[in-house]
Amino acid sequence: MTAQTTDLALELRGIDKRFGAVHANKSIDLRVPKGTIHGIVGENGAGKSTLMSIIYGFYEADQGEILIDGKPIQIKDSKSAIAAGIGMVHQHFMLIQNFTAVENVILGAEDGAVINESIGRATKELKHLEKEYGLNVPLHQPVEELAVGYQQRIEILKALYRNAKILILDEPTGVLTPQESEHLFKVLKTLKDQGTTVILITHKLREIMAVTDNVSVMRRGEMVAHVKTSETSREDLAELMVGRKVLLRVEKGESNPQDVKLSVDHVSLTDDAGVQRLKDISFQVRAGEIVGIAGVSGNGQSELIEALAGIRNINEGEINLNGQKVTAKHNLSPEQVRHAGVGHIPEDRHRMGLINSFSAYEAFVLGYHRKPEYSGAFLVKRDHIIKDCQAKMERWDVRPPDPFLRTANFSGGNQQKLVIAREIEQGPDVLLIGQPTRGVDIGAIESIHKRILEMRDAGKAILLVSVELDEIRSLADRILVMFDGIIVGEVPADKADEKTLGLMMANIVPEEIKALQAEGHA
Amino acid sequence: MSQERIPVWITVVVIPITNVLLAAIAAGFIFWFLNINPLDALRAMVYGAFGSSYGWGYTLYYMTTYIFTGLAVAVAFKCGMFNIGGEGQAYIGALGVGLVCLWLGGKVPFLVLLPISIMAAAVFGALWALIPAWLQAYRGSHIVITTIMFNFIAASLMNYVLINHLKPEGRMSVESAQFHPDAWIPKVHDVLGAMGIQMGYSPLNLSIVFALLVAFAVWVFLWRTRWGYEIRAVGSNPSAAKYGGIHLPKVIILTMLVAGALAGFLALNVVQGEAHQIKLNLVNQMGFTGIAVALMGRNHPFGIVLAALLFGFLTQGGSELQFEYSVDARIVVVLQGLVILFSGALQYMMKHPIEKAYLRLHHRFGRKPGTDKTAEA
User: Looking at domain A5-242, does it have CATH number 3.10.20.30?
Assistant: First the structure.
């Protein structure tokens, strides 16, 4: 880029940050021209979040300079960042759930002791902002009653209300439907036209290509490239992020479905808080096929997979797990589910799949630790477990292949491989897979996808839950879409374009699909 | 990953020692404020705790107690629970030991009685932990609250039992009758004396051998058995444990039973080994000190043995200090408090500077990246 310093909204020079032994940012340079949308991509742990936290004043850099509008400034805390015209929309919203939109927006920016005046002023100002940018939000309703799309708009309004000239969005589309994402991008483009500078952090390369003007790529704490979006491609960016060529889509042959291995029959589930999470769900999975479940996260997919895995109990209906019957009265424990030949790769490996303080070999027997193979009458068969773990790590190319390393010290992709290897190596007939590549490096996604397809071709019945549409579309043979605890409909993989799935994720079934389903039932 | 490794010896040796030294320096200021030369005070403490076989005896006697109460906290902690009830569990354990010794003392040989009294200490201590454990496991009542309350209940119960049932007719002080000498756990000075080694009188008894064996057994239990595996899994990540088919309530109850049994063992040292009778308030806060011992020992049996030695030194050295300079008896508590402050509450204060300093030295004097073995491979 050849822009003059004065044309830059934000410039970073030699930003360096260490956390104890971790070198999170290594002499980062970044130049963001005014009135552009600038993408920052990188794998997990590449240092994107640290860099943004430095710009927003959560951390102070050890070295380096930050320039806003060409003038060096000190950002000591988020207050000085806001004063410098920087606004941030976090991945996890920072909203008070029982406050209204207006109350959330003025929080920390109230002027005067009497709140009503501030609310009145803010309401006027927000109405104006709404009109200008198409950011309409119900202003006087508690946030908890609003959809996530609205909550995100409130976050953006919060920043704009504080006169943000530079808006940073961290993984903004993680919780949105494709249509909501489209709307967000429209808003971002309007903001850009009005002169706001937008910095977009994401791992979704498709979005980068769709909306940004320039892209910077980070890898292992370093800025490895700055490119114009128009002069690059998804494949090039992926290669820059990983440092080698990657296949974004795996080759998939025809499926060959056999007997039904998993059937779910009119199942309903109410959680401990009394919220009904699953409403009359029915479907089947056959050996040798992958059934994908698409949907915006939080629409019952997690509860479904946990119910199948024995972690939650159902209230109504019947499940048949590889020949084992489960009803509300007769629940199976997770151990019994495993015994029935069902493997479960949980959607959140940190919360469920692994125990961070355990060594790899200990995490490798979680769920199977009572098998006579691993545990004697009193002592665990430690030598055998270690040897077994070592062999499987080599087979699955887990790096480093060190059974004694704590699971927390593996990269995301290798942690996920640990979990997948553990479950698959036990030889289950049915595999329940949740978010197999969440937080996994692009390079590892490829190999995980290949393994899942191999399992299908080996005759396993696979249920795959993912919020990544690309993933569902490239792996699943049939796709079920969930919305608010129901299955909206089923789409064969070849009919599943992004628009159709997007509409169904918002509970709208296109005519074409309806016709297809009617045909199927007839 | 751009993560550079900090070697284990920094974390488990250098940092704890630095923290204890800082506590010592802070204690020095207190002595200076009391017009006592800090170095003289230190000398008095070290001499008092280690300068004679008498001093050693007391230090190791306290250490024995702290090993039991420290382990009782650590085992529960490994399961993610904070067992504040060591005090009560030990007190009830003492009831068990006392009843066995009063009942069987003089009637059966010591070697028959000992396994029974060990069992009694374990069972009584464990049962006292069972109700809080059950409430936590099945009703979600917080173990901190329930174990604290059970300390009070234990104290009241023991008042009642001692006054109404165990106090011999006509005695003024609230205590049980003396056990028959056949029931006493032999003193170390007697055993050594029989072997021809002279040692001054001290309450140190053979319970210390049992304490060290128990510490090792706890290590095996936690890190080498299926139950220990499940306990640590529940303690580090309950959702993952549940996913792994572990029945959480069962593990919680098992853990607390073990913790209560460990606390109950205190009675072997204090009651069967030294007092030879059940006395009022015999645990005397040592159950609570176990929390500090576990904290200092990083909830690892080996660390707990070392931390128990440190606290034994503070207890014994502190009481010598009190004789020598007639300072308030609570100086011991102040010293223990400083150690807890620096190695517990402020444990991360020195972590960053020390790790940074290590990395700087390592970069300057360590192997260059090019000559690193992993780089060649």
Answer: no
